[in-house]
Each structure stands twice: as C-alpha cells, then as structure tokens.
Amino acid sequence: MADIESRGASSSSANPGAQQLLASSAATRRVSETNSTGGTAAANSASPTLAEPRRMVAQRLTGTLLGQEEPLDYERIRREASAPDNRQQFEVNQREAMREAFQRRIERSPGAFVLLLLCAISVPIFLLVLYIYGWVTYFKHGGEPCDWPLATWLLIKLCQQPVSVIVQKLAKTLSSQTVISERCEQQVKVVLQNAPILIDVVGFCWFMWCKTCPETNPALYNFVKLYIIVNIVITVVFGLLLVVLVSLVFYGVANGWFDNSDAADAGVLEALETVTFDPELFATEGVEDDPRPAGDCCCCTEAFGHDKEIKRTPCSPCQHYFHKECLEQWLKRARTCPLCRSDLQEAVKEQQVEDVKEQHIASEDSPV
Description:
The protein is mainly α. It has helices at about 1-10, 15-45, 50-65, 75-80, 85-110, 110-140, 150-175, 180-210, 215, 220-255, 270, 325-330, 345-365; strands spanning about 275, 310, 320-325.
C-alpha cells in the first residue's frame, strides 16, 4: 500500500486527478483507523482488565433483550437469491446492525451497563425462587381441597418449561437425523410457543371462578394468584418495555444517537457506481432460475425504475443493487453491504487504489 502511495505521489504533477483520489483514500483510511483505535482506547481506558468481561456481558445482555438471529446462507445470498430471500436477509442484517450498535452503547456507558446487569441478575434469581417455592407449595398443599383444579394447573405450569426444552431438543435431533421433516420441527416449535398462552388463559379462568378455595386452601390460592400476577407483569409490562426499547434503539441507530464506529465514511456512497435503469439488468418477475438479480430494492421493496437513482455495490463475486436513498440510510448504521455483508468501504478504497495505479501506468505510457 505504501509503495502504491509513493508511486502515486511521484506522478502528481502529471496526473493531479489520480493524486487527489489517492490522497482522499489515504485520508479516509487514516481517519477510519484513528477512530477505530480511539474508540477502542476510550472504551478500555477506564479499566483495561475488565474490557473483555464487559464486552462478553454486554453481548449476552444484548442477545437477551433483543434476541439472536439464526444465520442464513450468505453464500446463496451472494449468488443472488430471490426477492423474498433478499428481503429476509436484509431484515436479519438490519436487526444485527441494531444489536451491534446497542451493544457498543452498553459497553461504553457504565450506568446503563450496571443497571442492565443488575436486572439481568435479579430477575432470573427472583423467578428461580418463585419456581422453587411453586414446587414446595404444590407438594405441601396440592392435596388439600379446592373447588377448581388449581393444583393441576400449577403442576402443568411448573413442568411446562423443562418439557418444552426437552421436546424442542428431541425434535431438533430427529430432524437432523431425517426421522421427521424440518416442517414438522417448525410445527412443534409453533405449538410449544403458543401452548403457554393457552395454559395461562385456562389458569386465569379457573382462578377467577374459585369460590371456596380461598378458605379451604389459601396457600395454594395465594400462590397461584402471585404466579398469575408475575406472568402478567412479565408478559405485558416487560413486553411493552422491550418493544419500546427496540423501537428507540432502531430509531437511534438510524438517526445517529449512538456512536456507531461501524458506519461508513462520508464519501463511500458517492464513490459507489451509479447505474442507469435498464429492465434487461434484472430478472423477469415470475420466471424461475433467472440468473439476473431481483428487480426491486430489498430495503424498501419497491421496484427499480427511472424515478430513483440506483447504486451497484462491488461485492465479490456478485453485485447488488439498491436505491441510493435506501443505501444512504443503511450506511449510517454499517459499512457493509445490506445483503451479503461485504465491506463496502474497503472495496471502495481498493477500487480507488486500482484507479490510481491504472492512471499512473497510463501517464507513464503516454508520450510527453
């Protein structure tokens, strides 16, 4: 790289445009490296020995709050999949960029880190104590009279989570051994995800219909009451808080609230190739096995046309197409391709260096 820069500098008088490109590329690289080093140093300067544990804890907290994505087939995406596949991959990558920005925010904010860590520790401990106390209540008071079968409901509720885990693992094992199909495995997951809702509704109805149980079996009745309240609080309150949190994070990443060191530098978008719309560039809708790329932008799902500027990414071995305005919003969050996660900033720098080399060679070959 240094050799290329030195050769470009020697030809600046003969080729000022090439020197300008090279200077821009070098400056961009230095700024990027400075920001990356500075950001890492700032995050680790307070307590270098705790940097890695904090990163791991922040990663776990982010996964717990915002969930984890199952990795898709990037190789197939690079070969240009269908429009629905592209849209699915874009949504996965969008959520991943949001999680990465949120994780960095937690790492660099001691207050938020401590608060989330305390919640992550205290809530599971409380639920574990409640779960153990539920078994104690069942064994001590499950045989006492109650006008509705709250003891049966409590037993089902206590067994629900371990049974769900066992059944999911069994279904996954059978699917991997082709004993059952993947579709059957997905159906099992859907049933296990929806079964708790039905169990909670039945338990709530039985609890509300109780007339004599508060007098004949107050310990069981009061515990079921507590259990139902906790379920409602976790499902409704924490669910709403999670939705609000995810929305704020998503909006914050898109509008620059977070210090996003993964965002692309300012000149990357303009450096990418602008393509004039031509229907022949894109696959015909409804035609299978068409090797050409899908004819719509996976970010906004709108078809390409003459009304919006189109950018083509230099991804290898494929190339992807996006509306300029959509790609601009994405590059505020990440420097990678929205589909295949190839590093667009590095690709632009490499292309600039190649352009400088070609112009330098051309200037040397041209007659004086």
